[in-house]
Design a protein that fits this description.
This protein has one domain. 78% of the residues lie in helices and 0% in strands. It has two helices and no strands. α1 (3-17) packs antiparallel against α2 (23-35).
Length: 36
């Protein structure tokens, strides 16, 4: 995983923990971040 992927994962986790996204959307973002 590169730095961009790590940043995207951290960002999506932060947003999920903030309750802004539902679980499915957060999981989708995580899968996308892992795929970068």
């Amino acid at each position: 995983m590169n730095l961009e992927g790590a940043y995207e994962m951290a960002l999506s986790l932060t947003v999920f923990m903030a309750g802004t996204l539902d679980r499915a959307t957060a999981d989708s973002l995580l899968e996308h971040a892992k795929g970068i």
